[in-house]
Design goal:
The chain is mainly alpha-helical and about 70 residues long. Helix content is about 75%, strand content about 0%. The chain has helices at about 10-25, 30-45, 50-60, 60-70.
Amino acid sequence: LKEQLIGKIQFKKYQEQFIGQLTMSYENKAGLALTAAKSLLCFNKIDSPESINRHIEAVTPERLRHVANE
């Protein structure tokens, strides 16, 4: 990951899988409440599931490599 980019198709599949797992976790109301509480305590805001998905979709393989090399 630090030296070679993940292919765009493979990366898109990883994003879709991650978003799918998050979507499934939103069905657990207790878990959703805990996640919202942590977000409020740490960041003083609560992002909607749609907003979180947009942030995930905005990540690129290049950005991921950049962060991996920091």
